[in-house]
């Protein structure tokens, strides 16, 4: 056990480094950090993490400086999850590591980019950002002399892979086994997953209002918003504009966090798991909201899907993103010589091993790794005559 571990604060059902299933390549224990802090630090130092600042959450980076990017989204997820982890006596460092890594595999242009790339790879195993996040931390990062990837702990990798198909699970070995056995991941992984939903539901309300694609009047239809808006307006009748929005959204987040802590505590008490392995054997997630709050949360999610993600201005971006991603993929897949040297070399290597599917995967790795602005520039270099190539 390393010096930085504070096991006294951990519940018996929390992940503990002394019971970790370890790293794929054994390493000496860190001196002044615990194993999960080391995971978190490796994620923060990775190239993929730095790219998140130029990747779209909902709004493309150049649409405005105040919108969430994948980076600020990931930090909000981590911040929400850490508060809950502490309240539940879970492993805070592991929770934080999973949250910071959860979107590393996202393509440029958010879900539009992922859907486009998935279509491009239809005949070659598809593209899924969760799997890509795992691929980045297991294979693609080149930072260490002794191994590819970041060599993270099993527990962190387990959390990053929040879902995958049975087909993929069979190829993944130990990390995919739980999908075949229908087991649960650690509570830290369950929490990271839920904090992701809480973060984006709430910050998308804020960003949607800022963009003028949503109005507070519209949002009054949604119980979760209306409840907090009523409280704020009763207490501060003169409050308007940004401050009214922020005061409402922060109360929405708080309401959800309190609900998650209370209902999860009740579920943990009822199930009474004495270790992470007992958590893994449960029939379902223990981390979650109460039924009533879950329904409100889903109502907001549905509202955002209809009114924000399907707004014509967001749809236009989606269409452009799709065209850029598909055009880049097709051009590089048809001629891997058009990719920069290291990606060209990776394509030849993977093609030798796995044929066309390998070539497609190497091209997908290149395209998925692009930031929004890099993809836009690369598209111009490839398709606009007169641009420097
Ligand atoms: Mg996310």
Question: What can you tell me about this protein's structure?
Answer:
The chain has 389 residues and is mostly helical. The chain folds into 2 domains: 3-311, Orthogonal Bundle (Hypothetical protein af1432); 314-383, no CATH class. Helix content is 62%, strand content 0%. It is built from 19 helices and no strands. The protein has helices spanning 35-44, 47-51, 70-87, 92-101, 110-120, 129-140, 154-160, 166-171, 177-181, 187-210, 216-219, 223-235, 241-271, 276-280, 291-309, 312-334, 341-354, 356-369, 372-383. Helix 12 crosses helix 13 (241-271). The protein starts with 34 loop residues before the first helix and ends in a 6-residue tail after the last helix. It binds magnesium ion (MG). Residues 73, 102-103, 196 line the site of magnesium ion. The site of magnesium ion (MG) has 4 residues, from loops.
- Tell me the fraction of residues in β-strands, as a range: under 5%
Q: How many β strands by DSSP?
A: 0
Order of helices and strands: HHHHHHHHHHHHHHHHHHH
The coarse overall form would be globular
CATH topology-level fold name of the largest domain: Hypothetical protein af1432
Bound molecules: magnesium ion
Distinct helical segment count: 19
Q: What is the count of structural domains? A: 2
Q: Structural class of the helices, strands and pairings?
A: mainly alpha
CATH class of the largest domain: Mainly Alpha
Ends apart, CA distance between termini: 53 Å
- Average pLDDT: 94
Largest sheet: none
CATH architect. name of the largest domain: Orthogonal Bundle
Helix % is: 55-70%
CATH superfamily of the largest domain: Hypothetical protein af1432
Radius of gyration: 22 Å
């Amino acid at each position: 056990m390393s010096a930085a571990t504070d096991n006294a604060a951990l519940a018996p059902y929390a992940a503990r480094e002394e019971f970790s299933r370890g790293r794929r390549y054994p390493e000496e224990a860190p001196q002044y950090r615990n194993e999960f802090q080391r995971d978190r630090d490796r994620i923060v130092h990775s190239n993929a993490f730095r790219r998140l600042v130029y990747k779209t959450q909902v709004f493309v980076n150049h649409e405005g400086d105040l919108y969430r990017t994948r980076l600020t989204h990931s930090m909000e997820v981590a911040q929400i999850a850490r508060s809950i982890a502490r309240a539940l006596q879970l492993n805070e460092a592991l929770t934080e590591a999973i949250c910071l890594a959860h979107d590393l595999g996202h393509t440029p242009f958010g879900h539009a980019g992922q859907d486009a790339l998935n279509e491009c790879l239809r005949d070659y195993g598809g593209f899924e950002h969760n799997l890509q996040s795992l691929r980045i931390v297991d294979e693609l990062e080149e930072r260490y002399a002794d191994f590819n990837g970041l060599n993270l702990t099993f527990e962190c990798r387990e959390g990053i892979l929040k879902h995958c198909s049975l087909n993929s699970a069979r190829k993944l070995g130990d990390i995919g086994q739980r999908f075949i056995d229908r087991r649960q991941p650690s509570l830290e992984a369950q929490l990271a997953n839920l904090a992701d939903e809480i973060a984006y539901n709430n910050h998308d309300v804020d960003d949607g209002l800022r963009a003028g694609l949503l109005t507070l009047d519209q949002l009054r239809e949604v119980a979760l918003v209306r409840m907090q808006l009523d409280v704020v307006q009763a207490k501060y009748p003169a409050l308007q504009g940004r401050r009214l929005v922020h005061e409402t959204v922060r109360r929405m987040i708080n309401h959800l966090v309190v609900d998650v802590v209370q209902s999860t505590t009740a579920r943990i008490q009822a199930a009474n798991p004495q270790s992470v392995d007992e958590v893994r054997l449960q029939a379902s997630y223990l981390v979650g909201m109460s039924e009533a709050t879950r329904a409100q949360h889903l109502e907001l999610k549905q509202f955002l899907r209809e009114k924000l993600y399907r707004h014509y201005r967001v749809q236009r971006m989606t269409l452009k993103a799709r065209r850029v991603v598909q055009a880049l993929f097709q051009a590089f897949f048809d001629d891997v010589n058009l990719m920069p040297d290291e990606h060209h070399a990776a394509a030849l290597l993977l093609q030798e091993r796995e044929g066309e599917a390998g070539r497609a995967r190497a091209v997908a790795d290149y395209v998925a790794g692009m930031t929004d602005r890099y993809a836009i520039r690369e598209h111009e270099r490839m398709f606009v005559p007169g641009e420097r190539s």
